[in-house]
Protein: ABC transporter glutamine-binding protein GlnH
Amino acid sequence: MQASKISAGMLIVGAVLQFMSPAFADQLADIRSRGEVTCGVYSNVEPFSYPNAQTRQLEGMDVDLCNAVAKQLGVKAKLEPLAVEARIPQLKLGRVDLVVANLAYTKTRATQIAFSDSYYSTKEVLVVKKADAGKKLTDFAGQKISAADGSTSAQSIPLSIKDGQAVTFHDTSSAFLALEQDKVKGFVTNQMTARKIAKQVEGTDGAVAIAAEPMLIEPIAVGLRQNEPAMLAAVNKALASMEQSGEMSAIFNKWLGPKTPYGLTRTDKVTPINQLKFTPVS
Structure:
């Protein structure tokens, strides 16, 4: 009787484990099985991912990167538009497979998700009114500074400006509007967005300048779920292949290069984050 109970119990456990096994399947194998990888991208942040004015389809640097990585994995890309602050939660919840949304490495994020090798580094910079163009970061001590909510731009404020008061907004446009309306003394964003904004308002009463000292230097990478070594290795292999073929530089130049409004020159190569010299934010 006892043996029968044990045998029945083992059968039940075996059946449960068999039923549960698909939930613990290797992510890369699952993606290749369904032939599609879901990329979390920005919903409306130029030049990374934003709707085309005519087609309303998402386009941008991160869209191209997602499509290129998907091609390297041998699957199609499915784009999932996300707000800035939703990037990490949606990845952790499994609603997206990857986050390709100008995602900067931070110590806190690294405890929650995995990061691919970095494919370029960016700067967080302080945008100020033209009258404050010659000031140093120390001159803004104790001042209100705006940034997008959930961004490393916001995190950089107390790190780079003594007693700096971070005032956050849902998106970059709203954060810049606060500077225009003199609600804050400065606005922090990445250098690409800062350059574009400065050009757009150049020669107007609302002209702005970019402070000479950067707030932060940040490596940008693809965000992945933790404990998925095969997926991480595959994405890093894809990035390395894109670097070697020149595709990575071509995508960068198309959206951020010298002939774009951002006028940047790509000097970084695809590199493991632990081999980079930088001070990560919390």
About this structure: The CA atoms of residues 11 and 17 lie 10 Å apart. Residues 26-122+218-275 form a domain with the D-Maltodextrin-Binding Protein; domain 2 fold (CATH 3.40.190.10). The chain has two domains: 26-122+218-275, 123-216.
